[in-house]
Each structure stands twice: as structure tokens, then as C-alpha cells.
Amino acid sequence: MGITKPRIEDFLPLVQRVERRLVGTSLFLSQAGKLEMVNSVLSALPTYYMCTLKLPPTVIKQIDKYRKHCLWKGADLNAKKPPLAAWKLVCRPKKEGGLGVIKLAAHNDALLLKNLHKFYNKADIPWVHLIWNRYYVNGRLPDQRKIGSFWWRAIVKLSDMYKGLAVANVGDGSTIYLWHRGNS
After folding, report:
1. What is the pLDDT of residues 55-96, one digit of tens each?
2. Which of 17, 44, 65, 148 could pair with 152 in a Cys bridge, judged by C-beta atoms 3.0 to 4.6 Å apart?
3. Phi-psi region at 71: left, alpha or beta (left = phi > 0; alpha = psi -120 to 50)
4. Contact predicate 64/106, CB 8 Å
């Protein structure tokens, strides 16, 4: 990872890996096998990137295009076969009548939220200490101000989502934050 925000072209190797995997294997699979391939392989390939970076919507859209092709058309990228169900329905959980295909944007946010969890809980990790000491020495929590690297700004944008999911456990009171942005 560099110090500048990656451009769309920087994600091209990831997109090409997904495409190669699609062309190489989906020709020999049944419909159930294609669904398993989408969930187990094509959805997992971008996970390493998504743990650290917010993928641009264009990249997610292209990977979803290949996942749709795998599920409905197989290895032939030029096939004109129509899909059997809308992608929105396919991405619903199986309990709700969908096929349980992972939504990449939501998966990306969830993976980035774990970094915010480490930050708010002051995990004993060098990058957490660096950010607290560099930007939040006064103990104030991050807000929507644009401070820090492109990576940190993308993660801070998820703060409201994190606060809606997080539960505060009161221990000795030395490190708990109750998400109050008073007049301080």
C-alpha cells in the first residue's frame, strides 16, 4: 500500500484474477456448482483488498458483472442468455428467498469496520497508537473532518455505522466512550 489513494487502474490485477478464474472453471460446473463458485471463490478473491481498502464502486460493479456471468452464463462472456433472477434477489439471504450471494460493498464495509473497532478499543497495534498520538492526542473522537490519510478518512466515514452496531462494556471506566459529542 502506498501513500496515495489507489486509482481504478491499480485494482486491475484483482479484476483480471476474477475474470481468469471465471473463464477457467465455470464451463464444467452445474448451476449449483456455479453458485458455490460465486460464493466460495469469486466473492473471496477481493477479500484481501477489502480488509484494507474501500473498493471503488466501479471495481465492485465489474467484479459483480463477472459473478453474474459465472452464475447465469458460464464461461462465455459474450453469451446472450438472460438471468433467471434479479441480482438484488440473488444477494438476499437464503432464509429470505435469495441465493445467499455476498454483497461485496457490505462485505467491504464490514471488513473495514474491524479496523474502526481496533481503533476505538485502543488495541495494542502500532497503527492504532500512531493514529491516536498523531490526530487524537486530546482524546476527542474522530468526526467528519478530513484529517489523516486516504485510508483513515475512508474508515472514519464508517463511524456512524460502527456506533450503531457497537455495544459499550463498562469496566473500570478508563477507556469507555459513549459517543457523546458535547460542547467540548
Report:
1. 999 999 999 999 988 888 776 667 777 888 889 999 999 999
2. 148
3. alpha
4. no
